[in-house]
DNA sequence: AACCCGGGGGT
DNA sequence: ACCCCAGGGTT
């Protein structure tokens, strides 16, 4: 790997810091978690912002803080209520890990979010980025907080041509930030880099003529701003076909089931779904009687849904069905009426089926 | 180091 | 259709 130390030494670090922090103070967006950046506020916002856009997060953050205004409130909450507030935001393990970690803060640290890298980094769901963000933004410590924005900005400024998908490149950039971060205002410095990445130094069509760091930028100097950063592409998703059953009993209630506590969409709820790679469609009724103990009548297909995850694609054919006979086997779900069912957290793919009930 | 884990929006 | 997003956990 190329040694970027000489390029850091060529930077006018004082001017870089001043230009960046001045720009941030003038141009930053007024975001809810910036109004009172307590460690808890910063923490919750950073977890929500992982792989998620600012505009998407804003209403979730506001609802979350109304419901769980303090670490204590979140620690005591029912996990299903936390997931319900998170419903639709995705990466649900973030919510479960956050609650676990906040419970640890309440029990081990008397409710005070740790202010050192070691204890902070040991909390569930707090990785290198989130740790650095809390330390710099809430505690004004000069720690790097390297997210996708910072990777892109720094790779352009210093003409880093390594693959930014690699861990090694992130560590390289952390080292660079440690060398150039403002000791006077690490919060504005780190947030400034991220804000710059979001508003100016964008992935496509960066607005270089508005950039406060133009004079420092090697990519701009060599007209490489559209070329950098270099990122290896990920492989495409696998398709998985399923039949989903909206099953109504004689009382008009609908069968729903809780997903396993580990893996994809853990602890969320769904309508029963059957892999069409494992069960042939023509034998679903028989298969269902064996597995669930219920004799069904298949009414009609009500919709089909294509749901894209980052790593796979669900192809869902949704059918209405009616219970004709039998007793539901143990741990196979529960029949609920509509008003009870909508209290539960569903992944978006299954939320889309609720209108067809 | 490679893979798993959601959902939405931009182009 | 493809890329991107204020990443972290597991193996």
Automatic annotation (TrEMBL):
Name the source's superkingdom.
Bacteria
Extract the signal peptide range.
Answer: none
Q: Which InterPro entries match?
A: A/G_AdeGlyc_MutY, DNA_glycosylase, Endonuclease3_FeS-loop_motif, HhH-GPD_domain, HhH_base_excis_C, HhH_motif, MIG/MutY, MutY_C
**Domain HhH-GPD stretches:** 48-199
SUPFAM superfamilies, per database record = DNA-glycosylase, Nudix
Note describing how the cofactor binds: Binds 1 [4Fe-4S] cluster.
Keywords, alphabetical: 4Fe-4S, DNA damage, DNA repair, Glycosidase, Hydrolase, Iron, Iron-sulfur, Metal-binding
EC numbers, comma separated = 3.2.2.31
Reaction equation(s) it catalyzes: Hydrolyzes free adenine bases from 7,8-dihydro-8-oxoguanine:adenine mismatched double-stranded DNA, leaving an apurinic site
Q: Cofactor(s) for this protein? A: [4Fe-4S] cluster
Which top-level enzyme class is recorded in the Swiss-Prot or TrEMBL entry?
hydrolase
Functional note? Adenine glycosylase active on G-A mispairs.
| Family (UniProt) | Belongs to the Nth/MutY family.
This chain's protein is named: Adenine DNA glycosylase
- High-level lineage: Bacteria, Bacillati, Bacillota, Bacilli, Bacillales
**Gene for this chain:** mutY
